Amino acid sequence: MDLKPRTRVWRKGRLEAEDFPADLISDYLAEPDTVVWLDLCAPDTEGLGLITEELGLSPLAVEDAVSHHERPKLDRYDGHLFLNAYSVHLSADGTQLDKHEISAFITGRALVTVRGDKGFDLDGLLERWDGSPDLAQYGVAYLLHGLLDLIVDGHFEAVQALDDQVDGLEEDLFAGRMPDGGTQQRSYRLRKSLALLRRVVLPMREVVNTLLRRDLEIVPAPMAPYFQDVYDHVLRATDWTDSLRDVVTSLQETRIAMQGNYLNLVMKKLTGWAAVIAVPTAITGFYGENVPYPGFGKSWGFLSSIVILVVTGVALYIAFRKRDWI
Known about the structure:
Elements: E1 6-11, E2 14-18, H1 25-29, E3 34-41, H2 49-55, H3 59-66, E4 73-77, E5 80-90, E6 97-106, E7 110-115, H4 122-131, H5 140-173, H6 181-201, H7 204-211, H8 224-287, H9 299-322
Parallel strand pairs: 3-7
Antiparallel strand pairs: 1-2, 1-3, 4-5, 5-6, 6-7
Helix pairs in contact: 4-5, 5-6, 5-8, 6-8, 7-8, 8-9
Organism: Actinoallomurus vinaceus
Transmembrane segments: 270-288, 300-320
InterPro entries: CorA_cytoplasmic_dom, CorA_TM1_TM2, MgTranspt_CorA/ZnTranspt_ZntB
């Protein structure tokens, strides 16, 4: 994928031309019944100058479009709306969540998308538009729906993949063995990915809900159910993300409790064995004194000490074993 601008124009709901020079946009917009789309990848303020005056874009919106790490939002300006959102996807090994920023200028007859990098699935967006040509008659609302639907579906796929990762972490945690350092690292990576996903997904509720407002006159009545469906997906993704964060937090607390219980078990067994060893040690210490003792210098004295050692050791072992102390 290169960085050159991508363009399309629809006339009366039908795709008329694509990948034409961007300087022809003003000519198409001068004609009736046309809707134009322009995509720019990683432009600067000067690169957006081509359309800034043509579409009457706010300098504040242009500044937000070329800057990075803006929060997901929908701002309203005189004559246009400005949308900022993030597409996300989980790495193949499920350990890292990557996000790609995309902005959009929304006017009555034009949609201008500004990608922060080449990571956004632009081909997937075109496939969505091409897959529903019957909606093209609704102009910018049709284009905006395809964009939001692709972004939100990506959020949903990411949270579903993270859910699978959490299930695997839970299985490892209760597999009957002590959690190792790898389990701890996975839990922290999952929590970090879920926190990042929540920062991306949560503001989308307000974005889509604002678009559904009638006073904006962006979404016509026939398109409202489609945007409502996107809004429902946003709510589900948000609730799912919050639920997974709670699950990961519970798993971390469970892991800490299991480590504490395991340490207590080890200390209990060590204490039990220490007690088993302590009594014979006391006996041998007594008989090791340099003073006469019962049976001193006699064979039966040596044998009696051995018997006492064995009997007390076995008795303590049996007693502790019944109480599960060793």
